[in-house]
Design goal:
The complex is a heterodimer of chains A (about 300) and B (about 450). By secondary structure, chain A is mostly helical. Chain A folds into 2 domains: about 1-45, no CATH class; about 65-300, MetI-like fold. Chain A is about 75% helix and about 0% strand. Chain A is built from 14 helices and 2 strands, in the order ααββαααααααααααα. Chain A has a two-stranded antiparallel ribbon with strand order 1-2. The longest helix of chain A is centred in the N-terminal third of the chain and has 32 residues, at about 75-105. Chain B is α/β, with parallel strands linked by helices and about 450 residues long. Chain B folds into 2 domains: about 25-145 and about 305-370, 3-Layer(aba) Sandwich (D-Maltodextrin-Binding Protein, domain 2), CATH 3.40.190.10; about 150-305 and about 390-435, 3-Layer(aba) Sandwich (D-Maltodextrin-Binding Protein, domain 2). In chain B, about 50% of the residues lie in helices and about 15% in strands. Chain B is built from 20 helices and 13 strands. Chain B has helices spanning about 1-25, 40-55, 70-80, 95-100, 110-115, 125-130, 155-160, 170-180, 195-205, 215, 230-245, 255-260, 275-280, 320-330, 335-345, 350-360, 360-365, 370-375, 395-410, 415-435; strands at about 30-35, 60-65, 90, 105, 135, 135-140, 140-145, 150-155, 185-190, 250, 265-270, 285-290, 305-315. In chain B, a hairpin with a 2-residue loop joins strand 5 and strand 6 (about 135-140). In chain B, helix 19 runs antiparallel to helix 20. The longest helix of chain B is centred in the N-terminal third of the chain and has 23 residues, at about 1-25. The radius of gyration of chain B is 25 Å and the shape is globular. The chains are: A mainly alpha (about 300), B alpha/beta (about 450). The interface of A and B includes residues 140 and 263 of A. Chain B: Keywords: Periplasm, Signal, Transport.
Chain lengths: ~300, ~450
């Protein structure tokens, strides 16, 4: 009721002419043009070319780069790897961040230290984080690998694809938990205390309060975070993969974005790399659209 | 008023003075060299350039480290496309075909002829010159060349009752198993990150196995990999067996395989002769080195090189080309080569430099530094051992490594893995052929 009358007012209140808002948008649009639209269009063009990296010879090959990709076993493998990787990373990140965020209120002493420790990984450069994880879990020298092996569990991410996948999922999640944590703590703060107290008075324990009250009210935050986690998994985990496994063993952790880098930057196969980046962007767009279409409907924005 | 009118004149006078000064001591012609040498060898490059710059007052080389090999070639491509390329770039050996057919370079032998420099190309060590030659002429200036050798732990071999590693793979294998079994060392050998180079490519060369048709690509772009039909298949099967038996160890990410050797965990290490500096610095063990093994009953051929060469980007001014040529002339001098050989651990590029090192008694004090040179000079290169001219060689190599990893993980057997590697490699070669048809 109130909201519907407010909204049109909001839209018209501040700007009387179109000039000022356009001016204010301009810097952002320029940045987008330079760093997003122009490169994207160039990648799209390159995706239809078979080209010498120096640009001496260029053939227009229609969809050859794309058909070659879908015919390639390693590319199809990379799609599956990416799906598993982003899903697992998403689940681990959100679940752990939720537990930590919900526990924040229950940490009575040293609460700021608790928050500080959780936020720390965000400040560590992904490459450094990756190297540390690779070292800790290295079967030959890593202390954690040593512990795992002392329990009689076979562990070798250099040979076993599952071990390698587990390792990069953990490393990527560890790096991103703090991001989700901040949003969830903020989201939990927005849950009215009165509701929680009322529930407590009615005899609901912390677990029940979490599932029955906090979680539904966190809906919008969780929705936003899943989208962000997918974007993170798709695009930003590159450095961790590079430092922890380099996409190996035998392509077991070769996610799409890493393959784009490897084929473009190392192998200098620019056409294929461009085609891959176009496809990757399409996948990400589709996924986001699907999320908005099907998941967002279930999200309740009003408290 | 008076003051203002004299001011411009004074300024003009000063300018004239500066200009006459500049004419008297003409600033040296400056050329840019992008390289990928870092750490100790990066300092050596700086020293080399400083020595050249001090040796003459006409030319000045400015050496800039642009990261690793991949970063240098990508930086070169970006700079070339932006029409602001450097003069000289250091490109790894696998990039040979990419550079050769890029239309972006001046072949080095043409450049030297054009600028009137005489270099005794015939004196270059054969597999070095052979790798970088196109139709009998050097396309790039060889710079840092190496070859793999076998480092070993003397104490551990002695403990297991051996003097040194055996010459043939069969005997060597028995030794490694004996070393592990006797407890002399925890593992027989550490797998280097560039094992595809030392244990597959060089293995093919030394045992005179055909790696690909058309003389390993020297005779045409329509070359096809055939190493799935050669001794390479039992060779990778052997590595897998060693891995399963704990004789071979993979260091993996986050840890360098060299440390497995220098810490005394593994008894041997197949690595580039350029690993000398690291091993000398870090090893607390009694170590030595020897030739790569070969298969029983075969006459071992020469090994092939790795490393990088210097390419000249086209389109620079004639006086700058003179400067580049003068620098290369300086590089090819036996004295420079001898110094570089000793300072960096790479092999000398010319036989003259090698003879000088021998005459000086250098190999008496560091005998293991001679192994790579002798190995490269062994016999007359055949078409299987001269080198590899494959387009998109890096890509084909990565496909092969992925298949070897699948073998190591137990997903495929050796034959299947090599068949798949060859199949993928040939697709990569065909793509290169399609792009560059008629250019080679």
């Amino acid at each position: 009721m109130v909201a519907t009358t407010l909204e049109p007012g909001l839209k018209h209140a501040h700007f009387r002419t179109a000039g000022l808002p356009a001016m204010l948008l301009l810097p952002q649009l320029l940045i987008l043009l330079l760093f997003f639209f122009i490169p994207s269009i160039r990648a799209l063009m390159q995706a239809f070319l078979l080209a010498d990296p120096f640009g001496a010879t260029v053939h227009f090959v229609w969809f050859d780069n794309f058909t070659a990709l879908f015919a390639s076993e390693s590319y199809r493998n990379s799609i599956w790897v990416t799906i598993w990787f982003t899903l697992a990373q998403n689940v681990v990140t959100i679940v752990v961040a939720l537990v930590l965020a919900f526990a924040t209120d229950r940490v009575v002493r040293f609460q700021s230290a608790y928050k500080g420790v959780i936020l720390l990984p965000y400040a560590i450069a992904p490459v450094i984080a990756g190297v540390i994880w690779a070292f800790l879990f290295n079967p030959a020298v890593g202390p954690i690998a040593f512990c795992i092996k002392s329990f009689g569990i076979a562990w070798d991410p250099n040979l076993n694809g599952w071990d390698a996948m587990l390792l990069v999922v953990l490393a990527a999640s560890w790096k991103h938990i703090c991001y989700d944590y901040i949003f969830l703590v903020a989201g939990l703060l927005a849950v009215p205390k009165s509701l929680m107290e009322a529930a407590a008075v009615d005899g609901a324990g912390p677990v029940k309060r979490f599932f029955q009250i906090a979680l539904p009210l966190l809906g919008p935050t969780l929705f936003f975070l899943t989208t962000m986690n997918f974007v993170y998994g798709f695009f930003e985990t590159f450095a961790i993969i590079d430092a922890v496994t380099r996409g190996g063993p035998a392509g077991a952790t070769n996610i799409l974005v890493y393959k784009v880098y490897q084929d473009g930057f190392i192998n200098l196969d620019l056409g294929s790399s461009a085609a891959q980046s176009v496809l990757l962007m399409t996948f990400a767009l589709l996924l986001t659209l699907l999320q908005f279409k099907y998941v967002e409907r279930k999200v309740n924005y009003s408290i | 008023m008076k003051m203002t009118s004299t001011m411009p004149r004074a300024a003009a006078g000063a300018l004239a003075l500066i200009m006459s000064g500049a004419a008297a001591w003409a600033a040296p012609v400056e050329v840019q060299w992008w390289h990928a040498m870092n750490g100790v060898n990066g300092e050596r490059v700086d020293e080399l350039v400083k020595k050249f710059n001090e040796s003459n007052d006409q030319y000045k080389v400015v050496a800039i480290n642009k990261g690793n090999y991949d970063e240098v070639i990508n930086g070169t491509i970006a700079a070339y496309r932006a029409k602001r390329p450097p003069h000289i770039v250091q490109i790894y050996e696998r990039g040979f075909m990419t550079m050769l057919l890029s239309d972006a370079i001046v072949q080095v032998q043409d450049l030297m002829d054009k600028t009137g420099h005489k270099i005794e190309w015939a004196d270059f060590i054969k597999p070095v010159a052979g790798f970088y030659s196109y139709k009998g002429k050097l396309a790039a200036m060889p710079f840092n060349s190496s070859s793999p050798i076998l480092f070993y732990n003397k104490d551990q071999f002695q403990k297991a009752g051996f003097d040194k590693p055996a010459e043939t793979w069969g005997e060597f294998e028995k030794q490694l198993y004996a070393i592990k079994k006797s407890g002399a060392a925890e593992c027989g050998t550490a797998l280097a990150t560039d094992y595809h180079w030392s244990l597959i490519e060089n293995y093919s060369a030394i045992n005179d196995q055909s790696y690909a048709t058309k003389a390993n690509g020297y005779d045409g772009l329509d070359t096809e990999f055939v190493y799935n039909k050669t001794l390479v298949v039992p060779q990778v099967a052997r590595l897998k067996k060693w891995l399963d038996d704990g004789v071979l160890q993979i260091a993996g990410q986050g840890f360098s395989p060299e440390q497995l050797f220098t810490s005394g965990k593994c008894a041997t290490y197949f690595a580039s002769t350029a690993a000398h500096s690291g091993i000398e610095r870090n090893a607390k063990i009694a170590w030595s080195a020897t030739f790569l093994p070969w298969e029983e009953g075969r006459q071992p051929k020469n090994s092939t090189i790795g490393g990088a060469a210097l390419w000249v980007i086209k389109g620079h001014k004639p006086e700058e080309e003179q400067a580049i040529a003068a620098f290369f002339d300086y590089l090819a001098k036996p004295e420079t080569q001898l110094w570089w050989h000793k300072a960096s651990g790479y092999v000398p590029l010319t036989n003259k430099a090698y003879e000088m090192a021998k005459a000086e008694g250098y190999y008496k004090e560091s005998p293991t530094r001679e192994i790579a040179v002798q190995q490269l000079n062994r016999g007359t290169p055949t078409e299987n051992s001269l080198g590899f001219h494959f387009g998109n060689f890096t890509q084909a190599m990565f496909a092969q490594r992925e298949e070897v990893e699948a073998l190591f993980a137990g997903k495929k057997d050796a034959q299947q893995a090599m068949d798949d590697a060859v199949k993928r490699g040939n697709e990569i070669l065909r793509q290169y052929e399609r792009l560059n048809k008629g250019k080679y």
